[in-house]
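User:
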Amino acid sequence: MAENLQQVKKRIKTADSIAQITKAMEMIAASKIKKAQTAVEKNKPYADRVKFIVQKILAENTDLAAGSSFIGLNKNSKKKLVFVISSDKGLCGGLLANIYKQVYTNVTKDDYVVTIGKKAQNFCIKNGYNVKASFNMGSSFPKYESIFPMLKIMQNLYETKEISAVDVIYTNFKNRLVQEAVTKALAPIEKDEHFVNKGEHVFEPSSKDVLNSLIPYYFEAMFYNMLMNAYASEQAARMSAMSNANENAKEISASLTIVYNKSRQEKITNEILDLANGQIH
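Assistant: Predicted structure:
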């Protein structure tokens, strides 16, 4: 029996509409990823240089741990603060699922959680995590000044010794095809045992003063770099997901068109046979 042609025709129209929508969303993500990728690439040398100077000072001065509450482990608390960076919207493939896996693995219910992105906020609240504050990720490129209230929370908790460490869960942008959900330590600043001390530098007025002045910029540079990576990863993942969805919608439309044509041909053939049988009788 031939399929209901009207239903098949309606399904073809629906698939074509989905293909148009996903194509538009793919193009929007593609336009955003170009700006985000450029920003990530331009910011990386600055962040790397700030990190290098901090590690150089720590490598040359073993007695600076007591100079700042952000250097060295705070043993008075076992809690930590975890920033969870996600998107505000879905439709970005497995990006959110990978972020959630990192949360399950690296965050306890006693830890303080600050979410950036509505998806992370909803997930953490639903699963009973101790959400201390929430911020929206937004649909446009994150502004530098947006990180100040986030880092202020970290500073307050760390200086009052309520936490011993700060971690950030986000998606690291490697390229347009590869994005990796990771958990990285932001504080305390620990000496890198693999650091290679290159070049001679003179710090004025002293290494300790330079380090204390540089620490705020260190956290800003590291955290903003993570935020930019998360945004770039979101756009890349959405572009890839919408491209796949677009191809799937086209394939469904093509297969339904074949079904429609076969059903229509079958219906015509049956009508001709009925006419022929009527003439014979």
